[in-house]
Design goal:
- By secondary structure, the chain is α+β, with helices and mostly antiparallel strands.
- It has one domain.
- The strands form four sheets. Strands 1-2-6-3 form a four-stranded antiparallel beta sheet, with helices on both faces. Strands 4-5 form a two-stranded antiparallel sheet. It has a two-stranded antiparallel sheet with strand order 7-8.
- Helix 1 packs across helix 2 and helix 3 packs parallel to helix 6.
- The longest helix has 25 residues.
């Protein structure tokens, strides 16, 4: 990450004075749960992450972590160095010690705080911390190479990363509170913040064609994130520019392969103060929640040309796509030519199982 080009502003245009805070209850999943997308998706919403036993175990652990997001702050501040640069590096190294894959820090913009919480019966969110620490966990390249994009391991891949990043965030927040500063962990089932703008500002990626998703140059979209918000003084990171806006304008592979047709082939639009590629939330949610042949969907992650193993060859191609504009078009062509984005059945390790009425069975 230290080798990437840093910029003063994100490569996506953001008009902060036009951004309205988002109500978490208006997310695609929440809308499916209350019946906005029909009775079938309302029913499936209650089981789509629980119908595979591994995914269910991960989700239940995520709910267990909800009790660890906040707590008492030490009455006296620890004797820390009066150096925000040192403290930022210390916090990052602590996160890496806890097994984070990538970490970034930014100031917490007020527009990145949800207006109302989905998990607390619509309670208004009040969060005034100054900084946000973003933690990324890889969903595992070996599993990503094996699955076909929307089969029975898809939800488990997501919640492995959600739960692991949440575990790290809870420990890191507690550590900061013991140092004498307020801190709260935000993870799946307990976010009070909108994650993409924080990842954008913390220098962990750029907005991509997939929609409201930040893409990392070394993981693609193959990660999930947790965040710690705090008042601990730290130096912040800058946004990055690795040519993704130009790349996504040429690629279109995620839109072409999306089984729901939710990803746009067209140009960017302005939405709530952001310049972004549009995504049809109803179609995307319908596929992820209503998938009868698997548990959720990660096809856009699977086929993205930035989703590659860490080899000398792929590092070289990655460098070329980040630095040489013509290499981006060649990279898209080469990705198709060499058959990337297709499953490798020899790598499959999981069981295809579905729970119905408390009984596990092999899906038809």
């Amino acid at each position: 990450m230290h080798t990437l080009k840093k910029v003063d502003r994100p490569t996506t245009r953001i008009y902060e004075d036009q951004i309205q805070r988002v109500d978490e209850r208006e997310s695609g999943f929440s809308r499916a749960g209350r019946g906005d997308f029909g009775r079938r998706l309302k029913k499936e919403y209650l089981r789509f992450t629980l119908k595979h036993p591994l995914s269910k175990a991960l989700v239940q652990m995520g709910f267990t972590l909800r009790d660890g997001v906040d707590g008492e702050v030490a009455q006296q501040k620890a004797p820390l160095p009066d150096d925000p640069n040192w403290m930022a590096e210390h916090i990052k190294e602590t996160a890496y010690f806890l097994r984070a894959d990538m970490v970034g820090i930014c100031e917490l913009p007020s527009y990145a705080v949800y207006s109302h919480s989905n998990w607390e019966n619509g309670k208004r969110v009040e969060l005034n911390h100054k900084y946000a620490i973003a933690i990324l966990i890889d969903q595992d390249i070996h599993t990503a190479q094996a699955f076909h994009g929307h089969d029975w391991i898809s939800s488990s891949m997501s919640f492995m990363s959600y739960t692991s990043s949440g575990f790290i965030a809870c420990i890191l927040a507690d550590y900061i509170r013991q140092l004498g500063y307020p801190a709260r962990a935000h993870h799946a089932t307990n976010y009070q913040i909108v994650v993409p703008p924080i990842l954008l500002l913390a220098g962990l990626g750029e907005m991509c064609r997939i929609g409201d998703i930040v893409l990392n140059p070394f993981l693609g979209a193959r990660f999930k994130a947790a965040v710690v918000t705090t008042d601990l003084p730290m130096t912040v990171d800058k946004p990055i520019d690795f040519g993704l806006q130009d790349f996504c304008s040429k690629c279109n592979k995620c839109a072409r392969e999306c089984p729901s047709g939710s990803i746009s082939h067209g140009d960017k639009i302005m939405h709530n103060g952001y310049e972004k590629w549009p995504n049809d939330a109803e179609k995307c949610t319908g596929m992820r929640v209503g998938n009868n042949k698997g548990a959720s969907c990660g096809m856009c992650i699977k086929v993205c040309p930035w989703n590659k193993p860490d080899t000398v060859f792929h590092r070289s191609v990655n460098w070329a796509m980040r630095h040489i504009p013509i290499a981006r078009r060649l990279g898209v062509w080469g990705d198709d030519f060499f058959g990337y984005g297709k499953p490798d059945p020899k790598r499959k390790w999981w069981l295809d199982l579905e729970e119905r009425r408390g009984v596990l069975r092999i899906p038809e």
